[in-house]
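pinging the channel bc i need a second pair of eyes. not urgent but kinda urgent?? the chain im working w is below, pasted from the shared doc
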Amino acid sequence: MIHNPVLRGFEPDPVILRVGDDHYIATSTFEWYPGVRIHHSRDLVNWQPLGGVLDSKRLLDLTGVPDSGGIWAPGLSYADGLFHLVFTVVDTYAEGWKDLPNHVTTAPSIEGPWSDPVPLHARGFDVSLFHDVDGRSWLLNMRFDWRPGRESFAGIEIQEYDRKTQVLLGKPRRISVGTAAGVAEGPHLYRRDGWYYLVHAEGGTGYEHGAAVARSRDLFGPYEPDPAGPLLTSRHDPSLELQKAGHCSLVETITGQWYAAHLTARPYGERGRCVLGRETALQHVTWTEDGWPRIMGGVPAVTVPAPALAPAPVPPQPATDPFTTLGPLWSTLRRPATPDWVSPSQGRLRIRGGQSPAGRRAPSLVARRATAPNCFFETELTFAPGTPDHLAGLTAYYNTRNWHYLYVTADDRGSPLLTALTCAAGQLLTHPVSVPLESGQPIVLRAELDGPVLRFSYDVGGGLRALALDLDATVLSDEHADEFHNGQLRVLGFTGAMLGLWVQDLDGAGGHADFAYATYQESRP
């Protein structure tokens, strides 16, 4: 059986692709490096993380992008012996504007090397490529209309793309405005039995989210919506374990079975906050006699029959990382993991201090996704702060405006101490924690997620000691992160809880911190 979500934690907007016996899922990464995470499977049951594609500033520059800006909904396809990746880098999305440059890069292997990105257009986002049987290719996207009083989601566009010259041809044409659910986005196009099938997301990315299908005999339409309604949604049943279901892409296995990869979320309580962010699930797809794709009941199932493929288990990820390298589970915030600020070696990850928690140019945060409601994250830190401007420790992080931080710093006399700080919707909250330390003394730090509660503990010898704090873990959620002012969007929440190693050097003295290991482990509630 397939057990959903197959990609747990912050893994949204999946696009699934098969090349031979290999299946790949690419997901959005927003302000995190490497951009566009890839997972691989031979059987759709077992998935191995391969890391991110866009791993350098040559391929992706995230300097200064807003929270939940950056990479939105990539498109992954294969033609001419090359993987084609199209992606949007969202530089602006608030106050009624969106700056949406789209690019394409190619590689002979999913591991690369990836070519220099070529700009395409900036009219919309959620780009994908469709390669037709006649050898021509087409770029799809949603069209964004900035004009006040207009519907900003202005329909699904298509434009011819020349794979050899990597340029767009002709003019874009609108082929659909979606259904009455509105907010048509995330388009993918498929051809089967002489029909073109347009699969797109609708209803927004929250609890009204869904996926719709329309078809046409002609590439440019008109496209007829499926008379049975949405292909997939959770909007009508808040009791379902998997909520926010939508943003589908389809794949046919080598044995002729069809599956849909889709976005989903697991809230704490009915229509509650989703600390783990938006995740990726798979559903089995059948076809009706008159040629419509169907998911059983049109709702997401937690367990799904696996395809008739040979089992292909993957090696389990070890709970403890000794930092011989920085592996595919790790991400860095807004800048790639370059040796000038982060360097793994046997038994140590050295991180040079970066900007403040509000900084969007050069923060020093190395983090991994929280994947279960109950889990813990632990590290051993060696750090010698000289002033209150030097900080290093462990964080449970959502974005620059929402995080919890257990860290070592120095007081006004230069004496080191352990303390804790929270930021919720941009407001700082100090906690009554002050544990004196010896300079350079190793200290074990731990964060434990217990559903909606976060707890910190530490060990300077003699065992773990819990801080007398029950922190609100739900500030690390999409729902809490969304901010509006007088009805105008200010901040979006599109990511999920990250657990990480964070270092600040606010006086520019060049300080660093050493982390001996990091352990992440899921635990039972």
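so The first helix runs from residue 478 to 481. and The helical segments are 478-481. — does that match what u expected or am i reading it wrong
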